[in-house]
Specification:
Helices cover 42% and strands 17% of the residues. The chain is of the alpha+beta class. A hairpin with a 2-residue loop joins strand 1 and strand 2. The longest helix has 17 residues. The N and C termini lie close together (7 Å). The model has no long low-confidence stretch (mean pLDDT 92).
Length: 92
Amino acid sequence: MNETKPSTRVIAPVNFVVSREVQGEIVVVDLNSGIYHTFNQVGSAIWREIMRGATAASIARTIASTHLVSEQQAAVDIDSFLQELLRRKLVE
């Protein structure tokens, strides 16, 4: 894992993950395990930002501006979501 602070590090999907949007929600498939992951509206918005090459800080700004939550709360929630994606080895 990169030693840059998580808020300034670009988050990227790992090479063996593919994703598609289905009826407004993101479906992510881990090609190594065959496990499918689906994200709700906010999770899908975060994944779209990840696919654009965003940092955690810029994702928090985007989510805060579109989902009636403070940037500080968005950062906390996004950090938790990103930690789960890292734990599942979907991003690096």
